[in-house]
Specification:
Blueprint lengths: L1 E3 L40 H13 L5 E4 L2 H16 L8 E4 L8 H7 L2 E4 L2 H6 L3 H10 L5 H6 L3 E4 L15 H10 L19 H8 L1 H6 L17 E4 L16 E6 L2 E5 L2
Parallel strand pairs: 1-2, 2-3, 3-4, 4-5
Antiparallel strand pairs: 6-7, 7-8
The structure holds zinc ion (ZN).
Zinc ion (ZN) binds next to strand 3.
Length: about 270
Amino acid sequence: MKGYIDGIMGTHGALFFEPYDDQPDNYGHWRRHTSDDPDYKVRNMEKMYNFVKVGLEAGFVPNVHAIGTKGVAEMLDLYERLNNEGVDLTGFRIIHAQVIRPQDFPRFKALNVIAEVNPYHISDDMRWMEERIGYERCKGAYAFKSLLDNGAILSFGSDWPGTSAALYHMHPKYLIYAAVARKTVKGTPEEGWFPEQRISVEEAIKAYTIINAYACFEDEIRGSLVAGKLADVTVFDRNMLEIPEDEILQTEVVMTIIDGKIVFEKK
Ligand SMILES: [Zn+2]
């Protein structure tokens, strides 16, 4: 069940504690789930709290979109409140979690909350991120290594088809490359965008497979190549764990198997 805290980076709508560098009066905005104000400028997190409670009673865990530092912090606060009320947060997600304050990284593990993030955002957003939120805040942007280092459960998704600001790729090679190289699809910048946040191919593949199965409460039946699990398999034409980083972009899918049936085969 998806909820929304704030807007998106592409429209200067993600919510921050400090204004945008290139729009000094703009802190971003709330959404219908978190505000009663027609312009979404006034906070009402009780709406989100009640929304989550109604969902829980109906058997759904919350998957909530939160993008700016304030959006993410507000959602962590709300999950902390539920945790203090005795709610088990297993499977609860913060979706996108694009820009995180240093003090909020350890809270994902402390609350046992999943960070469901989208590596391809880097390849697209790096063009203007620093201009919009400045160097310091960018250090906590798409900071997958910091999330892992702080023990967060890291789940990756394509966020396909994208946003009102951009369309995204869905081919796995672009999605893995974005997490590992932190470059555009043209291979820039050479050293990667905030390269200290690069992660390994293995960590990226885990986040796209077994951790996603866990996030869906299905890791017992899918998400890894183990006898007895459903045969959901993507076969590539080379071993991404062994090739140089730049070759990831030349990788092609030769076969896709879903539940034991071949649904795609490259001719
Ligand atoms: Zn979203």
